[in-house]
Amino acid sequence: MKTLQDRPALTLPELIQELAAVHGDNPALLGEQSTLSYRALSNLVDRVARWAAGQNIVAGDVVCLAMPNCPEYFAIWLGITRTGAVAALLNIHLRGDALAHSIQAAGATRIIAATALLPAIEEILPSLPEALRVWVYGQAAATGRVEMLTLPDLIEGAQCPPPEHRPAPSDLALLIYTSGTTGMPKAAKITHARLLEWSYWFAGMMGAAPEDRLYNCLPMYHSIGGVVAIGSMLVKGGSVVIREKFSASKFWEDIVQTECTIFQYIGELCRYLLLSAPSPFESRHRLRLCCGNGMSGNVWQAFEARFQVPKILEFYAATEGNVSLYNCEGKPGAIGRVPPFLTHRFPIALIKCDPVSGEPLRGQDGFYQRCDPDEPGEAIGKIQNTGESQFDGYTDKNAAAAKILRNAFTPGDAWFRTGDLMRKDSAGYYYFVDRLGDTFRWKGENVSTLEVAEAISACQGVLEAVAFGVEIPGNEGRAGMAAITADAQFSLQTLQTHLGNSLPSYARPLFIRRCKSLALTGTFKLQKEALRREGFANPAASDDLWFFDAGIGSFIACDAAVLNRIATAKI
After folding, report:
1. What is the pLDDT of residues 316-373, one digit of tens each?
2. CA dist., res. 26 & res. 40, Å (int)
3. Is residue 259 within 8 Å of residue 232, measured between CB atoms?
4. Is there a contact between 112 and 149 (Cβ–Cβ < 8 Å)?
5. Helix or strand or coil: residue 241?
6. What average pLDDT does the segment 525-546 reach?
7. Residue closest to 287 by CA, chosen among 214, 224, 211, 207
8. Each residue of 535-545: pLDDT tens digit?
9. Helix (H, G, I), strand (E, B) or coil at 411
10. Apex 278 CA angle, 273 and 279, nearest 5
11. What is d(CA 107, CA 370) in angstroms, rounded to the nearest whole number?
């Protein structure tokens, strides 16, 4: 971070040019189809910037980018931001209205799409402004409103004059979208300053060095896979192995063959690896560190033991937020803590919330109430106009305003709402509990869907699990329901016994739905909104559904007669 203090006007596109002079032909980004050295990366960034300037893309313009993971993806958005324009990183899995909304929310005037993603763009073009220009990067014929953009075009871009505008650290560089699990995706504003802060901060946390090589299979349209994983290595002269997608069966062989020393994870990936068959490569890796978020305590210890990873660095952060936590001590299950000497830089509080509405509670003095040790509450971060404590908001001003709590503890203060429930133990370690709104109340008790899902996932034969609350007519609160996928080792009786030993009675799901598959988000998180809407009354015909009958003390098949009894009885 000292570099940023000494050079407050520095931006990432400029830094890449300087790194090229130092590291030259050393590999920077290694993809499946192409590799860019530091010099080649810098040259491509410069050519994209010149090409963009030649297309009259100027400061303040927004260019949407829809491409799968590859080295060129990083170079293209860097080149766009070099002009002072903003790159909006589209979720490549979105289609239809959600994709159109993302483009419109960004206020985009141009789109660059890879060949494979062009059909999704062409499908929604009639609903987009007529003046919107579209380029396809790759092998495809230009038709109608779609123009070609190939590597030769970018090479010729070197003949154009460089952009006249030099972006400042406070200028917007990217728009990165939220997942949209509670509505349409929101476009979060990311400044040039934040790009470098993320890069240097994580480089320091990971102890990045020129000999490091990081394995990155996370989507590059998100902040971790697209900025943190890459920037943290490049600023220290390391390299990044980029993969388009995660493969549990090929993971360890790829890690060994590419000689990676760091793996950037999402918790679900580690659980998939634990469930996978043993690989002869899993004991031959050179990994010194796994860095990521979302790894539960039980997965952590099993992962560490089986794969002999020397260190796991778990962290908590949100793309648009100002709350960051790091578990540097390697305490299984914790997402981090704030050392006393850093509390002034990272002011975080946990506040009490209404268990039903999720709204924060004010005390008799009119201010919000802080949680006691081990009491779950929403995590909030104080908004200050310095570095990591800022909140730059979304393109949607109303959505940004909804994330701010004012007059929280003192008149005039402002705090960012994470929407995440956490608890902090007496030693100062924070633990993730659930997303606000995912917890539900049953039999007078608050139930964490994350806790239930983790307990179910630990049962023999269960491959994946999500938990949620469902309403039962005539009953207060919401009853627990879980959707699972399972293998041939699964036994309903084994699961029932396991739940009895793992969860209190009020937290044990009354409904179990065995599905053929469960949908994932782009960051490998299990989706449950559709399952929650379907509830226990509308499962797919091919799915098994069981109800726990307290009268006989076991799960039974949920047929029409059972459904009718549930709908007319007090559970």
Report:
1. 998 998 999 999 999 999 999 988 777 777 789 999 998 667 789 999 999 999 999 9
2. 10
3. no
4. yes
5. strand
6. 83
7. 214
8. 888 777 789 99
9. coil
10. 95
11. 39
CB atoms near residue 232 (< 10 Å): 26
The total of other beta-carbon atoms located within 10 Å of residue 129's CB is 11
C-beta separation of 147 from 110 below 8 A: no
Which residue reads 């041939």 in tokens? 488
Q: CA angle at residue 453 from 448 to 457, to 5 degrees?
A: 155
Q: For the chain, how many helices (H) and strands (E)?
A: 18, 27
Partner residues linked to 213 by β-bridges: 239
How far is 427 from 337, CA to CA, in rounded Å? 9
Cα gap 484→405, rounded to integer Å:
37
Largest CA distance in the chain: 80
Nearest to 449, CA basis, from 506, 501, 507, 502 = 507
- 435: tokens are 């997303």
Please tell me the number of Cα atoms within 13 Å of 93 on its side-chain side. 17
Highest CATH level, class, for 2-245: alpha beta
338-435: CATH topology: Luciferase; domain 3 (2.30.38)
* Domain regions of the chain by residue span: 2-245, 338-435, 440-567
What pTM does this model have?
A: 0.85
**Structure-token pair, residue 119:** 């059909």
Does CATH place domain 440-567 in 3.10.20.30?
Answer: no
How far is 541 from 556, CA to CA, in rounded Å? 17
**Structure-block tokens of residue 534:** 């379907």
d(CA 132, CA 134): 7
Phi and psi of 501, rounded to 5°? -90, -15
Kindly list the distances between the CA atom of residue 105 and the CA atoms of 56, 174, 565, in Å, as whole numbers in the listed order: 22, 13, 47
DSSP secondary structure string, 188-211? EEEEHHHHHHHHHHHHHHHT--TT
Describe the crossing of helices 38-54 and 12-23 by its angle, rounded to 10 degrees.
140
Q: Please choose, from the candidates 538, 475, 553, 567, the residue with its C-alpha nearest in 3D space to the C-alpha of residue 508.
A: 553
* Whole-number Å distance between alpha carbons of 282 and 5: 41
